[in-house]
Each structure stands twice: as structure tokens, then as C-alpha cells.
TrEMBL record:
Protein name per its UniProtKB record: NAD(P)-binding domain-containing protein
Pfam families: NAD_binding_10
Superkingdom of the source species: Bacteria
InterPro entries associated with the record: NAD(P)-bd_dom, NAD(P)-bd_dom_sf
Gene3D superfamilies, alphabetized: NAD(P)-binding Rossmann-like Domain
Domain NAD(P)-binding: 12-203
Amino acid sequence: MANSIKNALIIGATGLVGRALVKQLNFDANYDNITLIVRHEDAEFSRYPKVQQMQLDDFLMLGDQDVNGFSHVFSCLGSTIKKAGSKENFWNIDYEINAHLADLLETTEAHFLLVSAMGANAHSKIFYNNVKGQLEDYIQQLDLEKVSIIRPSLLLGERNEKRTLENATQNLYKKFAHLVPSSFKYKPVTAEQVAHTMVEAARTQTEKFKIYDNLSILKNSDS
């Protein structure tokens, strides 16, 4: 049975998964209104009839009034240490902003859906995975109405910024993709597949807290 879907709020809409999610929600008859929190107005989003953009220079300035009234709140916000410029900046983006958003949602009845990472683990020696894991742990101990954690492997797609290693990996994978079985848990996924999983979770999840691993993303995309 599909959940009641009314208004959606999205942070991280200008990223690879974010853009795919906005596009899917805009053409989903179940959604009436989609609000994006952005630093600068985006021309592509302006063409979508259901979308409105809320400009905010500092996402940590989000307040209770900004998140009230939404049935679903999606976070596709994330960076890399290289793009962020330092571990501190990466922490501020990936942890602090998402944790702040989650804090605000404690007083709402919104379903919170977060894009994390396959290797998320608060005890990991890899800084990226460690931060993702700490964020997941923090969100899980909050009193939120409903939470979905999406853990994709390598993301396939054309990014606005240059990621040399990811691009090289993508090109290599494309050559041998036909040899990779669908049951391989590390199989790369597209931004569209991740976005589709988020939409399906928003529509069908009944559990208060659920993690969608990479195999779940692959399975959802085949359904």
C-alpha cells in the first residue's frame, strides 16, 4: 500500500543523485509540490512546473519554519574531501548540515531519506566512510517519524565537477559491465537507480528505520 505523498523537500538537489531525484519526482503524479534548498537558483529546475527553489547561502541557517509541512525530506547532499578542500570542510558538509537538518525534523512528521555510502561505518579507518557512519548512527538515535538510509556503491553518471579517479573507474567498468553479475554487491549503480530507490522507499516503506544497501538499489531498479 502506497504511503501518502504530499510535499517534498530536497537538499543537495544540484548533485548527481539530486538532479535525478528532482526529475523523477517532478514527473511523479503522487507529488504535488517539490521545494529545493539551493545556494543559487538553477535554470534547469526553473523549467519544472512542480518545483520551487528556496535560496540559502548557509544551509546551517535552516530553521524549523523551513522544514515544516513536508511529508518527505530527501538529502542527497554530499561531497568529497578533494572537492571540499579539507577534512574539516568535508565534515561540515556531509555531517554537520545533514545532522542539523535531521535535528529540525524531530518536531515534524516527515519521512527522512538520506543518501549515505556503501562503506559507511563509524569505526572505519577510512575518513569518508567513518563520517558517513557517524552520521547514520547519529540519525538513528534521533526520534524521527521515519528514516531511510540509501547506501550506493560507485555512482555512475556525468558530474558537473571533474573527478579523475571516478571517471577512470567508470570508463573501465563500462568496458566490462557485461561480465559483472547483478548479484555482485559492489556493482556500480546509476544516479537514476538511487533516485528510483528513494522514491520507492518514500512510497512503500512501513518500517520506522530501514537501510537500503547496494543490492537493494539494484533490485529496486529492476522492479
